[in-house]
Queue: 3 jobs
Job 1
Amino acid sequence: MIHRREGRLCCWERFLSKNHNNPSCDKEIKNEDIIKGYEYEKGKYVTFTSDELEKIKTKKDKTIHVEHFAKMSEIDSILFDKNYYLVPESGAEKAYELFRRSLLAKKEVAVAKTVIGTNENLLVLYPTKECLIAKILFYQEEIQEMPKSQAKVEVTKQELDMAKTLIESMTKSFDIAAYHDEYQEKLQKAIMTKINGNEIVAADTGKSENIIDLMEALQRSVEQAENKKKAGTA
């Protein structure tokens, strides 16, 4: 972001930097004084007003343009970035509902593109029972590869069956309402404690008996299988 009149770089908190070599901030600025800028050389920027950025957009850029349709299962969940509710403009309600119902019946999504701000976004239009959701996707080059491949290990059918039994015993329907940010609750209590002039007491770090460590349980199942195998060959 660039200050409109002074042509200097703004910090994230919307403060004006003293100069290009010193990023310290000393002057707060208003939203209307900020324009888009692109650094093409060290310390040199070309700036654009909102009107200029709008001029380079085509009609296609200003709408959601469907590229093709696909099965949702074909799109890796690692590509998902953000979700937005899509609502129809006045007069487009029937077309919107027809589109939503058709996608839902086919169990497919629409792969589309649109420009948001100064970026062309790839997205999928996902149908639900109530509305359409635009799921913004990362481009392939934005996804970081795994730093290294995991070591290949051999597992027996018995070990796998025991692990699957553990998973089955803990399987139940997912209900988002059953979960909330417990740490934020503790943080708010700590804030009030400090406001009241009291000291923070260390939380109990002991392991709760009713919380299952999945990896530990899986490790125990593997160890049990190994012990049975050794007993059988002794």
Job 2
Amino acid sequence: MAGLKVGVPIALGYFAVSLAVGLYWMKSGFTPFASGIFSALNVSSTGEFAALSIMAARGGLFELALTTALVNMRYILMSASLAQRLAGNAGTGARLLLAFGITDEIYAVNIGRTRLTASHYFGSMLLPILGWIAGTILGAVVGEVIPPSVQAAAGILLYAMFVAIVIPPIMGSSKVAIVAAIAAAISVVLAYAPGVSALAFGWRVIIATLVAAGLGATFFPHNPAHVHESARTNESVDESRISKKQGVLGEINESGELFSESGEREAISQEDGREQ
């Protein structure tokens, strides 16, 4: 039940965002029913957008597979870290299903748990996936009946979604901002420069991703020092608390008195059988 509760706000957000994916699906010339299957098998907003763009341009299967693999590569790291927290009684089948349901938001609400059970994780992923599928289908169905002018205006939703995804990490890290700027510049060059503008969309995404990520890893590597420092700080706090508790126990042993958490002093009898 706890897993279902944490999945509710994610499901609502996914439903709203996937409407844009459904509209884009319809504009690409595919059927609404197929949009539900597509979203059920690809629980990834960025991956679906990239795949849809390649499919709409009638790109090749290798181009499609490589692009979606690069876009979704972060899920490998998420799966590995979640596996370390997952309770040991989860079998291979459960772990495969867990890996299928990993998204950025579902990962975020589970990684902070001290002990992660398969049942909790499955509960947290159920409603978000259903919301994602339902929103995609609804967007595709509505896209068939709304006027073209409204369709064109609604198309901005997908771009707004990606802006909302990219801006927070950019605002939080200058290194991420630099890498994002490099990727954007490469994408513009590949789209308009003579000789390379004829490249299919998927290959432009692949090139921009590899070059920007390579430059970022080489010249702007992530420095985990602040994470280690934070961990050391937490360890120091824990050690301090333990020391305080040991000090209180020492007072009990020596003076026979205990200070409770509320600050009230409680006397511990040391009469040792002596009569009053």
Job 3
Amino acid sequence: MRFDLPYSKLSGSLKRSFCVAKTGLRLLACMILAANLAACAPEQAATSDTKVHAVAAGDVLRWQGDYRGRLPCADCSHIELHITLYPDLRYRMSTLRVGHVQAPPQVARGRFVWREDGLIELDQNGDHMVFFIGTDGRLEMRGNDGTAHPNHRGEICRLDKIPDTPR
């Protein structure tokens, strides 16, 4: 048995509940994105000697692996972020809110693409987050326009690559 009711047929209270739920989800997504762009590592002045170059998409051995870092959080101490990039263009991303109500890490899995500008973009499961992969072994968060957005302290979120451990 199917119960498909058009939105126009819902009662007023159900419409308000539906709209509040949608608005709440949108607000939560915006807060997460804002916290992610708020950054986590001090920006260093780029000179010709310290300029970090992008890793090439074909240089799998340089970019595949695990990256970890901390993101600022509006209602907790910080967010622990762990991203694993796989050679077949899959990823696994785990976020843990530290200093907040005890909750398990949130895990997202999906695929990423190499954009024409040399950045990677996660799929909808990863909220279309964009990263620059540097030759210094770090992931750097970027906006959709490809630029780094430092927070009010001049910090940009960077995740450090975790060295491979011999097995």
